[in-house]
Amino acid sequence: MKQSEAIPESGVPKRGILQRLKEGIVLGAEGYLFELERRGYLKAGPYVPEVVLDYPEAVKELHREFLHAGSEVMVAFTYYAHRDKMRVIGREANLEELNRQALRLAIEVANEAANNAAPEDAALVAGNLSNTWKYDPDDHEASEKIVAPMFEEQAAWAKEEGVDFIIAETFSHVGEALIALKAIKQTGLPSMVTFIPIYERSLDGHTWEDACKMLEDSGADIVGLNCGRGPNTMNGFLRSLRKKAGSYLAAQPVAYRTTEKQPFFQALKEPGCKCAFPLALDPFTHTRDEMAKFAIEAREIGVNYIGICCGAAPHHVRAMAEALGRIVPASKYSSDMSMHPVIGTGKSLCKED
Ligand SMILES: [Zn+2]
């Protein structure tokens, strides 16, 4: 028996991703790469999730924290765990072991949570594919021969371990996204495929509306955007996408205050400073209230899968869940400033401007 299918001992089947989306919004959470790098378990630069093998408990802990904060989806930490990246760090021999372990860690935490949730509402587990950096838009056919096997092996491991659906993400080229989609469809599992909207168009020249439409026409169940931009500069794209996209729409912005002048987080910089990406982004981090505002805006736009990417921390996820009207396990400790010794008396700790 597949591990994730072991959850509903009661005989009540877990509601799948498509059923949940049909019934309402699904809240996700990602940003594992950045958060585990901040915690000291992952090397910035190559950004390969070696932590899965070296410190599996650290990965499980972050899954637990996102779950506690209200994420309905445990995304297996296989981002950048494809053959080429593993080769770069000299650990290609560990490729399958790392992928299977990451999938099992996500499933284990989802199963832990199943003890506290109605079996049909137990957390979903998603496999995860990412862009490979090996796709050449000038030679799609040759590229496909290189990247398709990387996606296919990862997708097959995810299917074998028993995930509920597969997310493929941060694509800049429609061509590469379509190859990833094909690999997911071979597993028969539901697919969510999202682009990183750094520029106004994909690097192979399509508007994001057309890019998502192409995925949709090729059978993607959920399409949309993740990473690259914060809510301030992603929401405009989302409004246009919602008008055109017929399928479920996903949005997982970074938790950074991008602006019209610096529309993606790789461009963020303070006056007189070097680029903040990727190690000095802290002063640009969105507050929990700002991410809660995004969750509400995304719901108003008509986004079906609302999440968060790089920069995410559990306090953001809880605030987003509560903004969507949910009470989550971490809500037990949500703030109550009436109990603060100074603020609770109505006084402010800020000086007058
Ligand atoms: Zn990201």
Which geometry do the CA atoms define? Answer: globular
DSSP helical segment count:
12
Q: Based on helices, strands and strand pairing, what is the structural class?
A: alpha/beta
* CATH class (first level) name: Alpha Beta
Radius of gyration: 20 Å
> What fraction strand?
5-15%
| H/E topology pattern | HEHHHEHHEHEHEHEHEHEH
Tell me the CATH topology: TIM Barrel
Describe the structure.
- This protein has 353 residues and is of the alpha/beta class.
- It has one domain: Alpha-Beta Barrel (TIM Barrel).
- The chain is 40% helix and 10% strand.
- The chain contains twelve helices and eight strands.
- The protein has helices spanning 17-23, 32-38, 51-54, 56-68, 83-88, 95-114, 140-161, 174-187, 208-217, 231-244, 288-301, 314-323; strands spanning 26-27, 73-75, 124-130, 165-171, 191-195, 222-226, 248-252, 305-306.
- It has an eight-stranded parallel sheet with strand order 1-8-7-6-5-4-3-2.
- Helix 8 (174-187) packs parallel to helix 9.
- The longest helix has 22 residues, at 140-161.
- It starts with 16 loop residues before the first helix and ends in a 30-residue tail after the last helix.
- The structure holds zinc ion.
- Zinc ion binds at residues 31, 227, 254, 309-310.
- Zinc ion is lined by residues 31, 227, 254, 309-310.
In short:
Helices cover 40% and strands 10% of the residues. With 353 residues, the chain is an alpha/beta fold. It has one domain: TIM Barrel, CATH 3.20.20.330.
Keywords:
binds zinc ion, single chain, alpha/beta, globular, eight-stranded parallel β-sheet, TIM Barrel, 353 residues
